[in-house]
Amino acid sequence: MKIIKSSSSGSLESNDLLVFVSPNSGVKIEIDSIVKLQFEKSIYETILKVLEEFEVKDVCIKIEDKGALDFAIFARVKTALLRAGEEK
Amino acid sequence: MMRKIPKHIEGYGEVREFSGVFSDMNVKKLTQVHVKPKCPGERKIFLSIKEFFDKFPPFDGMTLSFHHHLRNGDSVINLVFSVLERYDVKDICLVSSSFFPVHEPMVKWIESQKVVKIYTNYMSGPVAKCVSSGKLKYPVIMQTHGGRARAIESGEVKIDVAFIAAPSCDEYGNMNGVYGKSACGVLGYAHVDADYANHVVAITDNLVPYPNTSIEIFQHKIDSVIVVESIGNPKGIVSGTTQITKDPLGLKIAKMAAKVIEYSGYLKEGFSFQTGAGGTSLAVAKEVKKLMISKNITGSFASGGITGYMVEMLKEGLFKTLFDVQCFDLDAIQSVKENPRHQAMSASLYGNPHCKGAIVNNLDVVILGATEVDINFNVNVTTASNGMIMGGSGGHSDTAAGAKLTIIVTNLVKARLPIVKEMVTTITTPGESVDVVVTERGIAVNPKHVDLIEILKSEGLSLYTIEELKEMAYSITGVPSEISFENKIIGVVEYRDGSVIDVIYPMKG
Questions:
Q1: Domains within chain A, CATH numbers bracketed
Q2: Model confidence over B107-117: pLDDT tens digits?
Q3: How far is B394 from chain A (nearest CA, A)?
Q4: In this complex, is the C-beta atom of B423 within 8 Å of any C-beta atom belonging to chain A?
Q5: How confident is the model at residue B4 (pLDDT cuts 50, 70, 90)?
C-alpha cells in the first residue's frame, strides 16, 4: 500500500495511543511511550508487523503511547495506514 | 531476601539488614530530651519566623522536623525556608513526615546542597523527582509512620527544632487542628516531635485567647509559638468528599476482596478494619458495610487516615469507635470535633513497633494498595517501575505487620505494566506480612495460609498461585525489558523496626 496523505488514529487516553502517519521515502518510526523503558522493542516489532501485512515500504509513523496493549497498537496503526493509503 | 544491601552506606552509616517482621523485639530504651523550663510570665510568642530565628539562630548541621497534616496545602516548610535564606546555614537535615508537590521550593535547597539529608515516610512531586535523580547529597531515608515515631523515640533521629503547624493555638502553645481557616483535623504525626524535639515550635495563623479548648497537644510540650499570616491553603489541606471508584475493574476487585473478608472468618462481632482513602479501598469498605448490615455485626474499631465514609459507618453504629491519625476530608474533621467516639491517635500509638503495643496490633483486616507485588508477596509502594520515587510506606508496612489479614487490592495490569511481577523494583512491605493479593482476574493467597486457601477454594473464589497471576499479567503485557540502574544509592528503605529492607538506585541516563 502506498501512503499518499497524512492521517491519525487513536487517543491519548490511558491504555490507548495516538498514531500519526505521513508519506515518506523509506520507513521511519518514532516511538514516545510511558512504558518505553520496558516495551519499546515490542512496540517497534508490532508496528513492523502491521507494515509488513499491508506491504508499506515508505512511511513515517509517529506514536504517542499511553500504555496500550499489542492488539490496540496493531489496530490503531492499521487504521491510520488505511486512512492515509491509496484506495484500490 | 535476594537483595544486595551493602553493610555500610555512605551518608547513612552501618546497615542492620531486615531479618523478619518481628525479629527485633528486645527491651528498648527511650532517648533523653532537653527541656528548657519556663518561669511564670516568660513569653513564648514570636510575631514572625525571622524574630524566632534572631533569638534562636539557625546553625550548620541542624535537624528540622515538619509534619504533613496540611498535606498538599502545607505552607510551613516553604515559609520557614524562605526565611532561612537570609541566614548563611548549611548541612541541614530535614525530618518531614511527607513531601508533596507544593514543596517544590525545597528543590533548590537540595540542589545547592544546603539540605543534605532527608528522612521521610512518603514523597511525591518535584522533591521526589529531584531526590530520585540523585541530587540530594546523602541517600533519602524512607521510613514508615510507625518507624518514624520509633526512630525519634529511640534517639536514632535527633531533632533540634520541630515546627508544628497549628490551625488553632494560644500564646502558650495549647493547640488543636480542628478549628480555624487552616483546619486539618487530627495532628497525629506531630506528637512524637512535640515529645522529643529539643525545641518545639507551634506555628499558627489562628491565635486564640488563652486557654485554647479542645487541646490535642498541650503547652508543657511547647517552647515557642510563631504567628504567621497563613500556614496553608485550605484547598490542598482537605478534599471535599472522597469518592468511591466508578471504575468497573475497581468495583470487581472490591467485591472479590469483600468475599475474601467474609469467608476468612474475621468478619464477626468486634471486627476491626482499616482501609485507605483510594477509590478502590473505599469500594471495599462499601461492600464490607453491606456484609456487616446483613449479618448484623458491630465492629470494634476502624483506624488510620479517616474519610467521610468511615465517619458514616461510625454514625450508623457499624463501628464502636474510630482511631484517627489524620483526617482526609471535611466530614472527618467535623466528626472528630463533635463525636467522642471518634478518637485522635499519634503516629506512635498507631504503628510504632517498639512501643507497648500499637493500634495496628489490634487490627483484624487491612486493605492496602500496591504499585508492584512480586512472587514472594513483597509489595512496592515507594518507587515506580523505573525507580522514580513516587510514594512511600506511610502506614503500609505498619498495618500489614499488625493486622491478622492483610489484603492487597490492585489491578493486575496498569497501563501495560504488569503489577504482579517476578521481583518488585523496591521492597516497601515484606511478603511475610502480606496474606492475600486480589486482582480483577484472580486472587492469590500467601502459601503459608493453607487453611485460608482451602476455605476460599471451597467457597468457589477464583484462586491462583502468585506465579500464575504473574504469568497471566505477562501474557497480557508481554515480558517487560529489564531496566538498568546506576550504582550510586539514592535512597534507603527502612523497615518499621529500623532495619534496612531495601535500597533505591537511580535509573541509568
A1: 7-84 (3.30.230.10)
A2: 999 999 999 99
A3: 26
A4: no
A5: confident
